[in-house]
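Researcher: Final request for today, and then I'll write up notes for the group meeting. The sequence and the SMILES for adenosine-5'-triphosphate follow.
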Amino acid sequence: MSAVVAARGLDVTLEVAAGERVAVLGPNGAGKSTLLAVLAGVVRPDAGEAVLDDRVLYRQGGPDTRWVPPHARGIALLAQDPLLFPHLTALDNVAFGPRSAGARTRAAREEARRWLTEVEASELADRRPAQLSGGQQQRVAVARALAARPRLLLLDEPMAALDVAAAPMLRRVLARVLADRAAVIVTHDLLDAVLLSTRVVVVDHGRVVESGPTAEVVARPRTPFTARLAGLDLVRGVAVDGTHLRDGAGRLVEGTPSGDLVAGAPALAVFSPTAVAVHVAAPSGSPRNTFAATVVELEPRDAQVRVRAHDAHDGVLLADVTAGSVGELDLHPGREVHLAVKATAVTLYPA
Ligand SMILES: Nc1ncnc2c1ncn2[C@@H]1O[C@H](COP(=O)(O)OP(=O)(O)OP(=O)(O)O)[C@@H](O)[C@H]1O
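Model: Predicted protein-adenosine-5'-triphosphate complex:
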C-alpha cells in the first residue's frame, strides 16, 4: 500500500507479505493510527493505492479512482476499545460476523464457540460486555475479529487500555492466534513488537524511517527513537520446560510462556527494566530470578534512573530505579550488584 494524507502529514509505503506480522512503532502523532484508518477504509487518502491479495482496496489521486468501503475489504480492525455490542452476549458478539456473512444462527454460534475457545474465553460465552473485565472484553473482541475471517488484521494498541495484570494473557492469546496471519500491529511497546511481530516499521512525522526484522531492530536500533524504545532486558537461552529456560551461564530463568516452549529449543526471556530490582547483597530465599552484574552506567530518565549493568554472559542488563535508591545503594560504575526480577514479570518465548 501507499498513501498520502496531506492534512495529517502522512506519506508512507508499506508491504506486508502473506502471513507476515508487521509492528508499526513511532512517537505520538507520527501517523500510525492514520495508516491503519486508511487501510481499514475510514480515512480516504489524497493519493496512493492499496492491494490485498490482488484486489484493489483503493486507488486515489489518479485517473482510475477506486474505493472499496470498509465492510467489503476483508480487513478487521481491533482497536484499543473493544467496542463490543453491549446488548449482545459474548457468544452473539462473536457470531455477528458469520451471521452477517449469511450463516444460520446455529452454525454461526458453533463457529463463535470455536473462536471463544481459541481465545480462552469459552466460559464467558453467555455474559454481556458489562459483565466482563477489560482483558476479557478484549479477548472476545479478538474472537469476533477472527470469526469474520479477515485476510488482514489491524491492531491499534490492543494492550494499551489494559492493566498490567491482564496484558500477559491477551499477549499470549494474540501471539498464538496471529501466528501465520497477515497483521499490522500499532504499538508503543517494544515488548509487544518483540512478542507479536516478525518485522518492525518505525514511522516518524508521517514517514517510514526504519524497517527490518524485529530481532534485528531490537538488537541494533538505527534511530534514536528505536534506541530509546529498545530498552528491554533480553536473556537468551534454551528452554528447559514450559516455564523455564537455562541461560548461557547455566542459570535457570523462570517466566510466563508466550507460545509453546519446546524443551531443548532456543528461547528468550524478556522483561522490562521497570520490573527489575537492584540489590547489593544477593537476595536469599526469594523465588526471584537473579543476575549478578556490574554497574557500567547510570542514566537519568524523567523521575527514574536507568541502571545499565554488565553481566558476564548476557551482556547488558537494564534496571530502572528511583533517584533515591541510587544514593541508598551507593550505585556507581563498577559497583557489583544483583538484579532481581519476579517470574511473573518475565515473558518466555520461543526464539
Ligand atoms: N481526526 C483527525 N483529524 C485531523 N487530524 C488528525 C486526526 N487524527 C489525527 N490527526 C493528526 O494526524 C497526525 C497523525 O496522527 P495519528 O493519530 O495518526 O498519529 P499516531 O502515530 O497514531 O499517534 P498516537 O501514537 O499518539 O496515537 C497528527 O498530526 C494528528 O494531530
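Model: The first strand starts at residue 2 and ends at 5. Residues 219 and 230 are 8 Å apart (CA to CA).
Researcher: Thanks, that's everything.
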